[in-house]
Design a protein that fits this description.
heterodimer, A: alpha+beta, MutS, DNA mismatch repair protein, domain I, Trna Endonuclease, Chain: A, domain 1, 2 domains, 6-stranded mixed sheet, 31% strand, B: 235 residues, alpha+beta, 34% helix, globular, disordered N terminus
Chain lengths: 181, 235
């Protein structure tokens, strides 16, 4: 079991060997200070965001989490995640669906989305799917639709809206494509 | 209202989702291809819509009058009705042939229709005002109808969502069912994700492709296909 320390709103895997293992098992985490890491060729601890951290902890059972030197359990870890990240459970459900389907899922914030989902991995795929999490009551405007379509056209991948349902544990994905008519 | 509509969708007796019923709209002739293939192939850019503008293949100006009884524009001459029907316009009911307001506006706009009410000719402007009074979305409907028609599609009445059309793929009218349903969304208005999902589900069940036509605030239309995506990673 790999040890990760919860520091505010992130997890740090201090052991570099463990860091390399996690990173090369599906691009989990980001080596500190390495902008474009290649598989195992880095010499730094990795930072896991709360979504991937919680996924590795509760679903994969690949890491154990400590805070202030003490191990913490699922209930208190979830409570911290929910406090630190808005709509954590909704986003976790979407993240888990994509990961379970075999995608490499990274933060999509630089594309203006919640997630970037790669078929093989960043630096390998040409472009990721861009996934934004919404709720059924989310109102979309004409501009939202044009942005979704434009963004997808620019990066040559689909823009996806994910609608998680925590009651049924299901996620509906809606894709947007510019239609040339 | 929405619930009622959805209920109608699900009803097996709904004539709209019945492909047999849809056939009854079909034109008597199959010459429905509006654009030569070469022109279709060249329509690769959004901006090319202007260059695609073309005249309707209707030689003469058709006379129509507004029926106060039916509250619709009707054609009197049978040969005009047959011509327009063959091009995907109008509704034939018993002995009469009427046009929807967006069809009237489009045909007036393209100067193919001379409309009279009480013996007086009505201008395009007048009819825009009239149509907008009885339907706040009349202008948006006209814009989308005109845009698609200009791009070579046959466009028919939709299923009763706020602004929607059945759109036949080029060359399909008279031969196949409508491939697309285009939903209009005006810039400045919103649509809930739940409604969008409902639309996509309905269209998927009917085997149609859902398209959102965004009408920007001066009237340009931009189209986006929307559909379910499954997170399946290629092996």
């Amino acid at each position: 079991m790999i040890a990760a320390e919860l520091v505010e709103n992130k997890l740090i895997v201090w052991d570099v060997e463990d860091s390399r293992t996690l990173f090369s098992s599906g691009f989990f985490g980001k080596p500190v200070g390495v902008s474009k890491p290649k598989q195992n060729e880095f010499d730094a601890p990795i930072v896991l965001d709360l979504l991937e951290g919680y996924y590795l902890f509760s679903k994969k059972r690949e890491i154990q989490v400590t805070k202030d030197g003490k191990r913490i359990g699922q209930v208190s870890f979830l409570a911290i995640c929910k406090r630190e990240y808005v709509q954590f459970e909704e986003k976790l459900l979407v993240y888990s669906r994509l990961r379970d389907a075999g995608f490499v899922v990274t933060p999509g914030i630089k594309f203006g989305a919640d997630f970037a989902a790669y078929e093989r991995g960043p630096g390998i795929d040409h472009a990721p799917y861009l996934v934004r999490v919404a709720t059924p009551s989310t109102k979309i405007t004409a501009i939202d639709i044009v942005l979704a379509g434009r963004l997808a056209t620019t990066v040559r991948k689909q823009f996806i809206i994910a609608i998680p349902d925590l009651n049924s544990n299901e996620v509906t994905f809606i894709g947007f494509d510019w239609w040339r008519a | 209202m929405k619930q009622q509509l959805l209920h109608i969708f699900n009803s097996p007796s709904n004539p709209f989702i019945n492909e047999v019923a849809e056939k009854s709209f079909k034109a008597p002739n199959t010459a429905s291809r509006l654009l030569p293939t070469k022109e279709i192939a060249s329509s690769t850019e959004l901006e090319s819509s202007q260059s695609l503008d073309r005249q309707e293949e209707i030689e003469q100006v058709i006379s129509a009058l507004f029926s106060k009884k039916a509250r619709h524009v009707i054609l009197e001459k049978k040969e005009d009705a047959i011509l327009l029907e063959s091009k995907g316009f109008g509704i034939k009911e018993d002995a009469s042939f009427s046009l929807r307001d967006y069809e009237v506006l489009y045909l007036m706009f393209t100067k193919k229709l001379k409309l009279t009410i009480d013996g007086k000719q009505v201008s395009f402007e007048k009819y825009v005002n009239f149509a907008s009074k009885r339907d706040k979305d009349a202008w948006a409907r006209f814009l989308i109808f005109r845009d698609l028609r200009t791009r070579g599609y046959v466009v028919r009445e939709g299923f009763g969502f706020p602004i929607d059309f059945r759109v036949y793929d080029r060359g399909d009218f008279g031969a196949k069912a409508a491939k697309y349903i285009v939903f209009g969304l005006n810039e400045g208005k919103t649509m809930s994700i739940a409604d969008l999902k409902e639309i996509i589900d309905q269209m998927a069940r009917m085997g149609k492709e859902a398209v959102v036509g965004v009408v920007e605030r001066r009237g340009e239309v931009i189209y986006y296909k929307v559909g379910k995506w499954r997170p399946v990673r290629p092996q």
